[in-house]
Write a structure and sequence with these properties.
The structure holds two protein chains of two kinds.
Chain A: H1 5-9, E1 21-30, E2 33-43, E3 48-52, H2 59-67, E4 74-79, E5 82-83, E6 94-97, H3 109-119, H4 124-137, H5 153-165, E7 171-175, H6 183-200, E8 203-208, H7 211-217, E9 220-225, E10 228-233, H8 235-240, H9 245-250, E11 255-264, E12 269-273, E13 278-282, E14 293-298, E15 304-306, E16 317-327, E17 331-338, E18 342-349, E19 366-370, E20 377-379
Parallel strand pairs in A: 3-8, 3-9, 6-7, 7-8
Antiparallel strand pairs in A: 1-2, 1-4, 4-5, 9-10, 11-12, 11-14, 12-13, 14-20, 15-19, 16-17, 16-19, 17-18
Chain B: H1 6-50, E1 65-68, E2 72-75, H2 80-87, H3 89-122, H4 125-136, H5 143-154, H6 159-166, H7 178-202, H8 207-214, H9 219-247, H10 251-257, H11 264-274, H12 278-308
Antiparallel strand pairs in B: 1-2
Helix pairs in contact in B: 1-12, 2-12, 3-7, 3-9, 5-10, 7-9, 7-10, 8-9, 11-12
The chains are: A alpha+beta, B mainly alpha.
Chain lengths: ~375, ~300
């Protein structure tokens, strides 16, 4: 029997697939404070799953519960069919890459990487071979005799990665893996991580507060806030179809317009916004009764900006005045004042080179903003 | 007009410049002169006396430098005092016994102090301060008074024997035994073990222990492969702070050991006060110093080489 390709790449869409990690009704309380609040989560084999949220949202606590460093206040965690609730960290088929890397300062690079294998009583010759292979993979063979304090931040990060991968865990937990690196190293390591994950097929669970990192790395993202999941989905789902204002705001930028449902058809919705005075025609139906107060989210890059009205009727366009321009080379961001004081952010690629140094759209220009019926999203919370 | 003259101005500028560039050296003058006056000078005086001969006079030793009739300077150095220490079994045995008692006491202090320091570091912020306070609290009472208190506790009619008798057992002899000396030394010096260990453990990165557990190390393995090596500097510092004074301890073996426990401090006291043999007493002190300082210098040498590599 052949599986549909889509199921191989997206096991969570396959109703038959058995999740590799099952988090069921898990809560964690520290005194009166609920760090993780009754969450359920299913992660499939080979996924690169990100827990994304601001500081204090409970993402690290959840990761530490997966590693076994924190006990569960309630609920259960199952990894590969085995209940982990009472399994101590040193017996879990899980390894963690710590945010601080937690390299043993009194051991060499080699000693650090070999540590886990030695604990398992792997024969000496095999340890040497596996450590050498791992160091070759992260390109640290030259530095194998060095102590951690003699390495740069990027090298330490790779030692930490090698150390957590050498035991071939079923699940690799990564706590802000790129947090301590500068921008260039981050980009490079990000793709290295994806390659390694692809090559070894290990399930990765990544904790991050960086939405860009989560977007590029992950097969799926869980957005967390106050110990709960706001939304779980692929990067595209979360970006294009956020379920709440909080998610829309956290992932990328979004312009929010408050309005009421004016017309609710089977294949479209019309939302009227009073301030700014605008009609949103949205080409997907929502199951909300007419008259309900809703928000319309509109991504800055989905808005067209021009000096002339496109003349396609009154909906999905709005007049405004350019307040600020941020020229980024490839892109420009415009902050446009509409209605009585709302600022709408628009990003637009600079596709053609201006004839002179005057930009086609300048400060204080009157402009028309317009967008496609499919571009905006209706949010109720 | 009280305007400072140009010369004065330039002079004060010069002075402030000297202060600014050399303040580090100036600050260091204080500890260096302290060491010179209160450590090296007495040391050389003792060294000088150890190389003299006993005479019945005041002071009770021969001078090192003498002026003979014709203005000829005579320097007299005798090494017989050191040879005497080596030849007489009493001294060798006493030295060995002192080293044995201080080594065992240091190990006992480590065994008791390490878990205490560990527990203090891992306790909550407020408890931590209370516990540290309790460690330091005994220093507020005179050391001598505390040793006398132990005499009361360990005596034949003391607290411990009262309890033993109350349970219906035969009383045991504690005071004036080697056990009493161990109890006294461990009791007195355990804070000197705990405090450096505490200071060292306070800096320990506890996520390293989590990392070890994550990589499959059971708690005991984690302790021996991570915690112990990383707290080694604290162990060494604490052990030196216990071992060195314990070796030369006089009061505790004298009061709790009576005449039954020979330690070098007692021998030194007897040579000095009872025999009035200052040169031999000084030789005993110098030999003790060498015995303690040489291993330490060796250790430091090895350590600095390790740091370099």
């Amino acid at each position: 029997m052949t599986q549909p390709v889509a199921y191989q790449d997206r096991p969570w869409t396959d109703p038959e697939a058995e999740p590799f990690i099952k988090v069921q009704g898990v809560s964690k309380l520290f005194g009166d404070f609920t760090a993780v609040d009754n969450v359920d989560l299913e992660i499939y084999k080979g996924e690169l799953f990100s827990l994304l949220g601001g500081s204090g949202c409970g993402k690290t606590t959840l990761l530490r519960m997966l590693a076994g460093f924190e006990s569960l206040s309630s609920g259960s965690i199952v990894i590969d069919g085995a209940n982990m609730n009472n399994v101590p960290p040193y017996e879990r088929p899980v390894n963690m890459m710590f945010q601080s890397y937690a390299l043993f300062p009194h051991m060499t690079v080699e000693g650090n990487v070999a540590y886990g294998l030695r604990r398992d009583g792997v024969p000496k010759s095999e340890i040497e071979q596996r450590v050498a292979d791992m160091l070759a993979m992260v390109e640290l063979t030259r530095f194998r005799k060095r102590k951690p304090h003699q390495l740069s931040g990027g090298q330490r990060q790779r030692v930490a990665l090698a150390r957590s991968l050498v035991k071939q865990p079923k699940v690799l937990l990564l706590d802000e893996p790129l947090g301590a690196l500068d921008k260039r190293l981050r980009d490079q390591t990000q793709f290295e991580l994806m390659n390694i994950q692809d090559k070894l097929g290990i399930t990765f669970v990544v904790v991050t507060h960086d939405q860009e990192e989560a977007m590029t790395l992950s097969t799926r993202i869980a957005v967390m806030d106050a110990g709960r999941f706001m939304q779980i989905g692929t990067p595209t789902e979360i970006y294009e179809f956020p379920v709440s204002r909080l998610v829309a705001d956290f992932i990328g930028n979004a312009n929010m317009f408050q309005g009421r449902i004016h017309e609710n058809g089977p294949d479209h919705v019309i939302v009227h916004s009073k301030e700014p005075d605008c009609e949103f025609y949205i080409d997907h139906g929502v199951s909300i009764t007419e008259g309900t107060r809703v928000w319309v989210a509109l991504r800055p890059e989905k808005i067209r900006i021009s000096k002339q009205a496109t003349g396609e009727g009154t909906s999905n366009s709005i007049k405004g005045m350019v307040q600020e321009i941020g020229y980024l080379g490839g892109l420009s961001t415009y902050r446009v004042l509409v209605g009585d004081g709302q600022i709408v952010e628009v990003t637009s690629p600079n596709q053609s080179r201006p004839r002179d140094s005057n930009p086609p759209i300048d400060w204080d220009d009157d402009v028309v903003l317009s967008w496609e019926p499919s571009s905006s999203v209706v949010l109720t919370k | 007009m009280n305007e400072p003259s140009e010369v004065e101005k330039s002079r004060s500028a010069k002075l402030s410049r000297i202060l600014q560039t050399n303040w580090r050296r100036l600050v260091l003058v204080i500890p260096y002169s302290w060491l010179l006056i209160f450590f090296f000078a007495p040391f050389f005086i003792v060294l000088k006396i150890s190389l003299a001969e006993t005479v019945i006079s005041s002071p009770p030793f021969t001078p090192m430098i003498d002026w003979v009739n014709d203005g000829v300077m005579q320097i007299r150095i005798v090494t017989s005092n050191f040879a005497y220490l080596w030849e007489d079994d009493l001294y060798v045995i006493t030295y060995l016994n002192s080293l044995k008692i201080s080594t065992v006491s240091t190990m006992l202090c480590l065994l008791i102090g390490y878990p205490i320091a560990y527990a203090i570091v891992r306790s909550s912020h407020t408890t931590k301060h209370v516990l540290l306070m309790l460690i330091i609290l005994p220093f507020w009472t005179s050391f001598l008074l505390r040793v006398y208190a132990w005499m009361g506790i360990l005596a034949d009619q003391g607290l411990i024997n009262d309890i033993i008798k109350w349970f219906g057992f035969e009383p045991v002899r504690l005071l004036y035994t080697q056990t009493a000396v161990y109890i006294g030394i461990v009791y007195t010096y355990v804070p000197f073990m705990i405090l450096p260990l505490y200071a060292n453990m306070e800096k320990l990165d506890w996520t390293l222990l989590e990392a070890a557990a994550d990589l499959g190390a059971k708690p005991m393995t984690t302790f021996f492969t991570v915690t112990l090596p990383l707290t080694a500097p604290g162990i060494i510092a604490g052990s030196l702070l216990v071992f060195i004074p314990a070796t030369g301890e006089y009061v505790i073996p004298d009061l709790l050991g009576g005449g039954n426990v020979l330690m070098i401090g007692r021998v030194l006291y007897n040579e000095f006060n009872s025999n009035i043999d200052w040169p031999v007493a000084s030789a005993v002190a110098i030999a003790l110093l060498l015995l303690l300082v040489l291993p330490m210098m060796l250790y430091q040498h090895i350590q600095s080489r390790e740091v370099e590599s």
